[in-house]
Design a protein that fits this description.
- This protein is 48% helix and 10% strand.
- The chain is an alpha/beta fold.
- It has two domains: 290 residues, HUPs (Rossmann fold); 73 residues, no CATH class.
- The chain has a seven-stranded mixed sheet with strand order 5-4-1-2-3-6-7, with helices on both faces.
- Helix 6 crosses helix 7 and helix 11 crosses helix 14.
- It is globular and about 55 Å long.
- The two termini are 20 Å apart.
């Protein structure tokens, strides 16, 4: 049996994700699909419009066999950390193949870029040099690698991080790219398959979204109280003296955070005031989530503390029973760990800004079982 690994955020789960899973089944009809799932707060600093519980149920309804948690402590970090920890989790479950979406669908050039990043000791220095010249981040990446490539595509950037992680963790995992059928940057398209960012934009504009999502997603969408989210953030920033202690608050950003907190009218306005060419929109959003979750640099982890199984199918259960003795790490949360502590903070904030009760799901800690 072929064991396929995928890494998703499902914010929200839409027709493109159904297409992705169907393509996997075309490639590997008898495969078992293992998903690493990001929960309440996304890699780009967004609050999820679907809860972790809802995403798990929807994944199982759509041919995923095992759903594993990507803890918030890793899921809200840079692409490299997000990717490496996701691959590490999948590696415990002995996947053969990693399948991911890609805008370019050019696996060879993605591998070339990943190799250049890994093998050039001066790469990070070069990127910082170009950022100091006030180039934007994608341009700085291209110049540091001396390559003609569009670094504005988020799935390609994640793909590069996946390939680096595979090289470092288990080079026997076979990577396969599936061409994305929609652009992350396209916020206007009305095709049947559009990006999650387009769907979220339509939700904000109160536009019709029924044709872009399956019913199980539509019925589970959470309304995010952006005003409350910003008020909570204002409180944290105004009452914290050492903002530089938080993860991603670097190079004087704490000064901009303090400077503009009284000038901005809302969260979007605040981010725009802080943003410069050097600090990407997504980096700032991630940084604000870290402040909100009280995630400090001293809390950052190098190692995974435990693995949490969010759900499984009958086929998934059989596979788990087969390999669980070979997994040399706890398959249950460790309650006094940094990972668990941050996950609890994440669900508390999530429940506040969505007016939901996902804490109950977290505390019960019972995997969702698909019959």
């Amino acid at each position: 049996m072929h064991i396929v690994g995928i890494i998703c955020e499902y914010n929200p789960f839409h027709n493109g994700h159904i297409y992705h899973l169907k393509q996997i089944k075309k490639l590997y009809p008898n495969s078992l699909i293992v998903l690493v799932l990001n929960g309440y707060f996304m890699q780009r600093g967004d609050v999820s419009v679907l809860s972790k519980q809802a995403k798990t149920r929807i994944a199982l309804l759509n041919d995923v066999d095992i759903v594993l948690e990507l803890p918030a402590i890793f899921g809200t970090q840079s692409a490299d950390t997000f990717a490496s920890k996701s691959i590490e989790i999948l590696n415990y479950f002995k996947i053969d193949t990693l399948i991911f979406g890609s805008e370019s669908n050019n696996l060879e050039i993605l591998k070339e870029i990943a190799s250049k990043q890994l093998n050039n000791p001066d790469y990070e220095i070069e990127v910082k040099k170009y950022l100091k010249q006030k180039l934007n981040y994608p341009t700085a990446l291209a110049k540091a690698l001396n390559i003609n490539f569009d670094f504005n595509n988020p799935n390609d950037l994640l793909a590069i991080s996946y390939l680096k992680a595979i090289s470092q963790i288990n080079s026997n995992i076979k990577p396969i790219a599936i061409l994305r059928t929609s652009s992350y940057h396209d916020l206007e398209s009305n095709k049947k398959i559009i990006s999650a960012s387009n769907i979220r934009n339509k939700i904000k504009q109160k536009k019709e979204i029924n044709k872009y999502l399956p019913q199980e997603s539509l019925q589970s969408l959470q309304a995010i109280n952006e005003d409350l989210l910003y008020k909570l953030l204002q409180y944290k920033i105004k009452t914290t003296s050492n903002l530089e202690d938080y993860l991603d608050v670097d190079e004087g950003l704490e000064n901009r955070l303090k400077k503009y907190i009284n000038e901005a009218n809302n969260l979007e306005d605040y981010i725009k005031k802080i943003k410069t060419k050097r600090y990407t929109y997504n980096k700032i959003k991630r940084m604000l989530i870290h402040i909100l979750l009280d995630f400090k640099k001293t809390d950052n982890l190098k190692n995974i503390e435990y693995l949490k199984i969010l759900g499984f199918s009958k086929k998934g259960k059989n596979y788990l029973n087969k390999i669980k003795k070979e997994i040399n790490i706890s398959l249950k949360p460790i309650y006094n760990s940094q990972t668990y502590s941050l996950e609890q903070k994440a669900v508390f904030i999530y429940d506040l800004v969505t007016n939901s009760n996902e804490l109950d799901f977290e505390l019960k800690n019972k995997p969702i079982i698909k019959d």
